[in-house]
Every structure is written in C-alpha cells, then in structure tokens.
Amino acid sequence: MSADESRKAMEKDPDLLWEEPSAGTPSEIVPTADEVSKVSIQEELRRVDKLYGEALGYAHEFINDIKNGKPFDFNDATPMVGEFIDSVFRNESAAAAISKLKAFDEYSYTHCINVSILAVILGKKLGYSRERLEMLGIAGLFHDVGKVVIPDHILNKPGKLSDQEMDIMRTHPLRGYQILRDQPGIPPEVLRGCLEHHEKFDGSGYPRGLKGDEISDFSRLLTVVDVYDALTSKRVYKDPMPPGKVLAMMYKWRVTDFHPNIVEEFIKSLGVYPVGSFVRLSSGEHGVVVDHNPLDPLRPCVRVAYDHEMHRIPVTEISLVDETRELTITDVVNPDKYKIDVYELIQ
C-alpha cells in the first residue's frame, strides 16, 4: 500500500474520525511510591527476567497468528501486562533495564514488549490509574502490528531505505489499525495508539499529520517510548545507542516532536543515566548505574568495577550524592566495546 493509498483509505474510513473517549474518574488509583514495598534491583531483575521470557513467547504467538491471518484475543495479554505493572511498582528500574542488560536479537518481537513496559513506567509517572495502565500496556504491546505486513526486504534492510521504501514503511500505522480493527473488542484507545504513534506534536509526523492536542493521550506516551526503545536497541542496520545519550537527544527534540513536558517526565522516571548505563567517573574508574536519584538525577548510585585502564578491580558501590570525593559521571561508555556483560555485573 502506497502513501497515497493510505491517505485515500483514511478518507474513506469514518472510524478514523472518532473523538477521544473520556478517561472518567479512575476506578482504582495507583499507589504512591511510599505505599509500595520497593525491592532491590537484583531481586526484581530475577523476577522480570522470567516474566520477559514468557512475554517473548507470547509475542511470537500473536505476531505469527497475525502473519497467518488468524484471529487473536487481545484480552489474553491482560494478565501479562498486569504482571509488568506489578513489577514496575516493585522496582521500575529493573523492568526498564532488562531489555538493555540482556542480548536479544529479535527486535520485531522484543520492541513491542519494551514499549509496553516503558509505557507503563511513564504512565505511572503521570499518575494513571491501574485500569488505564493496563490499557496503556496493551496498546504498547500491539502498537506495531502493522509491520507484520511490511515486506521483510524493507523491514530488515541493512542500509538506508529509498523514498519508495520509506513510503511503504510509513503505511504500517494504518495497516496495524486495520488489522486491530478486525479483531473483536479492541478498545478505541488501543486502536488510536497503533494509528498515531508516529504523529508529532508539530504536525510533521504520519500518517495523518496530526498536531498538538489532536493526538490522543496514549499516542503521546507511545511516541516517546517508541523512539527511546528504537534508538537504544540493536537493529540490523545500527548498533544500540547508550540510553543516557538517547535521552539527551530526545530532550533536544522535545519542542517539535513530543507533547510539552512528556520527555521531561520520562527522563525523571528513568533517570538521566538509566539503570544499566555503563559510565566513566571523573576518577577514571568505570562502573554500572544500579539506581537513580530522583532528587539529583546527575548523581546516581554506581557499582564501580573497573579502573581507568578497564582492568577489573574489587567492586564498590558508590552513591555519587554522598561521595566525599565529589565524583561525577564524565561519559557513558559502550560496554560491548570492552566485552563487558553488564547484566552479570549488576546482579
């Protein structure tokens, strides 16, 4: 389907002109941080690692069903998304970090899981109710289903797409909307999240060129976490970028691409240096960020394990806020360059 065909399809489809349903009064307000018993990053990593593996199996199942033209029940995802939410409230850093700490080579499957988890984290930061978080997590899980019908030679092309190929790629939000619309009981918020996750605040996005408040609440969140995960993930045509550097880039784009204040809230929820970031300190030592400090995001807790020449040293955990040596982070380093297993280091 070409870009022109996409526009014509939207003009013919009155369902694309709905109004955003009112969120109403939340039936269940999510607990505050003080009301939740937060567990350690190490403990929650073990839990979320197992959950992520189960989610990967589910992603294979529903994506393969779509490829084969089989119907699927979106309600099957509800228990899994509920477990993601529980994990986020126990320790959101673990849930956010797992996909970046372990090596996965199945971007088509892992991306939808990552977006679901990250959307829940951002939704929690914005005060969403439990009910809304569940719907948001489901929207994240199904936001990219339209890529199932994009030819593999375009989807997995190792080089730059031609203009014609890019036009085809840009049809995936509409194609995904059409796929989801044909499934029974898909909520309007999920449909819009799929259709609008590439729209931009200034109107330069696609497929409809929506701007500002024309973009639904869910779509605004999904746009942010979709960009973050895409840039921090390994793709066939690029290596992953360090999370901290991606957040800095997104901060620069916040005026044009994203709804006001949403990038700032996302950075607050992950930290300027997200858990799992491998960093160099002003002392020359290297370590991994194991917790962030919401009150002073530039001074997280770092587990130091390498000296200035990348030789292994006894592990010490340092809170940069309390450190009398006044250490600071001077750079974010790619651990793959030194064949360092950050997942092993953080446990």
How do the strands and helices of this protein lay out in sequence?
Blueprint: H1 3-12, H2 41-67, H3 78-101, H4 107-125, H5 130-142, H6 152-155, H7 163-169, H8 172-181, H9 188-196, H10 217-232, H11 243-252, H12 262-270, E1 278-281, E2 286-291, E3 301-306, E4 312-319, E5 329-332, H13 342-346
Antiparallel strand pairs: 1-2, 1-5, 2-3, 3-4
Written account of the structure:
Helix content is 47%, strand content 8%. It is α+β, with helices and mostly antiparallel strands and 347 residues long. The protein has two domains: 3-270, Orthogonal Bundle (Hypothetical protein af1432), CATH 1.10.3210.10; 278-346. It has a five-stranded antiparallel β-sheet with strand order 4-3-2-1-5. β3 and β4 form a beta hairpin. It is globular, with a radius of gyration of 20 Å. The model is unreliable at 6-37 (pLDDT under 50).
In short:
The chain has 347 residues and is α+β, with helices and mostly antiparallel strands. It has helices at 3-12, 41-67, 78-101, 107-125, 130-142, 152-155, 163-169, 172-181, 188-196, 217-232, 243-252, 262-270, 342-346; strands at 278-281, 286-291, 301-306, 312-319, 329-332.
